[in-house]
Amino acid sequence: MKPNAADEQLAAVFVSYCRETSKILSFENTKLGIMVEDKILYTFRGWLAFVAFMDLGVTFRSFFENKCIIGTQTNLQADEHFIHEELTLPRVLGMFSLLKALCLIHCSLFIHYKPMVSIGAMSMVLSIVLYLSEAIHYRSTTLNFFIVFPSILNGLTLIGLYLIVRKINKPPVECVEENVEMLMTKLKYQKNKKYICKKK
Fold first, then answer.
1. Would you indicate the residue range of the signal peptide (predicted)?
2. Going by C-beta distance under 8 Å and a sequence separation of 6 or more, which residues neighbour residue 180?
3. Using one digit for the tens of pLDDT, what is the confidence trace for 52-101?
4. Distant-in-sequence, close-in-space partners of 8: CB < 8 Å, separation ≥ 6
5. For residue range 134-191, what is the model confidence (pLDDT) as tens digits?
């Protein structure tokens, strides 16, 4: 089936639109834009390292100071500084915090890989669920600073991680330019074929 004049005009409009889009995208990917994106990425990697450092602090408190932020309501021998005589619960929380810190460190180093990003995101989701469920549902602790602050910190980090991953995984300009070239080649081929058919 031969393309009519309306199809050719529509294809020409689409190709011109793709050209303008590729120009806009290429302008965004100038050297200055790339430098700004790299700075934002490195800043967020530092933020992930900071959150991991906070979890390492929880690990240190749990293992070496026998302090645990959960279980203080049910533990009658725990004082206001969350010191437990039974060391099982602080050790479990310490191992969980250490595992979460390792996940976040790997996520910050390999943020371009989706599996590492999902592991880091799920570790933060589990941390939020743990803290809020212990305070609200199980009532083993109260909504104090040591529960609210990590939950807000992990929530903000989750939002930032989602935005950064969307920025990293956007389609590159080369793909758009390659599609424009393919459309131009196809349009030229159709015009040449139509001209040859008319000549015959």
1. none
2. 15, 18, 19, 22
3. 999 999 999 888 877 777 765 544 444 454 555 667 888 899 999 999 99
4. 187, 190, 191
5. 999 988 888 888 899 999 999 999 999 999 888 776 655 444 455 556 656 666 655 5
Question: Using CA atoms, how far apart are residues 156 and 102, in angstroms rounded to an integer?
Answer: 19
Overall pTM > 0.70: no
Long-range CB contacts (< 8 A, 24+ apart) of 134-139? 134/70, 134/71, 139/73
Torsions phi, psi of 67, nearest 5?
A: -105, 140
> Residue type at 148?
V
* Residue 76 CB-half CA count within 13 A: 0
Place of tokens 């939950």: 151
Nearest Cα to Cα of residue 58 among 32, 96, 87, 86: 96
d(CA 197, CA 200): 5
Gyration radius of the chain over CA positions: 28
Q: What are the boundaries of each domain within the chain?
A: 37-68+81-169, 172-199
Q: How far, in Å, CA of 100 to CA of 103, rounded?
A: 5
- Distance set, CA 5 to CA 11, 149, 183, 192, 197 (Å): 10, 65, 17, 14, 15
Q: What is the pLDDT of residue 173?
A: 47
